[in-house]
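Ligand: NAP. Inputs:
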Amino acid sequence: MDFTGKTAIVTGGSRGIGRAVCLELAKGGANVVLCYAGNAAAAEETGSACTAAGGRALAVQCDITDSAQVKTLTDTAMGEFGRIDILVNNAGITRDGLLLMMKETDFDAVVDTNLRGAFLCMKAVARQMVKQRWGRIVNLSSVVGLRGNAGQANYAASKAGVIGMTKSLAKELAGRGITVNAVAPGFIDTDMTAAMPETARSAVLSAVPAGRLGAAEEVAKAVAFLASGDAAYITGQVLAVDGGMAM
Ligand code: NAP
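Predicted complex:
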């Protein structure tokens, strides 16, 4: 896929799926602005890998729950590259627990990062995309947002919310050459899933028709397609990349 001359902001680009998305876009020649929460070493490593893959890259520390920091992120992207064509809302967290044990702070933190953070980033790039009459927004949802999961009420609510927000923004922006889609990964091999206890891991795996975990690169290819010029007539959709889990 050709991303020559395009500038992409990828939140949570330092690790996991976000890192794979950065590399996929950089391979196509994109300028990649990747943001991270605190892991500067991982972000710098991803930035170097993007440059080696053929793109230009800039790593920016930005807490996406803070609108002032999100503004700095988009200002930095504009200052460095002069345009913003693609936003991939990938940064996300989990704070799992059954309802009766779940603290309000864990509910708030997950919704604040996964849903409100994505909202702030979309709000920050939309005006520029409208001016350009071209834009691609891809939001990371989850199979859990489609089907629910015991112990993840906060995460499921945030990821279902991302789908509702995606469809609403798709309707608002379709006439301006901007598409808004969601990708809903299943069980992907990243730090997020590595933190799960072995029993929970095997239980989830038994529910995957493909019988294996997905790779971050497999999600990244779907994201890159939706971010490309080839996906111009696709908007408001949720593409599951989950080995058949959500069927
Ligand atoms: P991950 O390996 O845990 O990486 C999370 C990324 O988000 C890191 O780059 C982290 O930055 C960043 N981040 C976290 N909070 C942030 C904040 N407040 N501001 C800015 N950046 C922040 O996650 P992943 O497994 O790749 O998941 C990526 C996305 O896919 C998430 O939205 C997740 O919910 C979704 N997803 C994942 C799976 C899966 O199986 N892995 C399945 C379905 C959906 P630092 O490196 O600085 O900490």
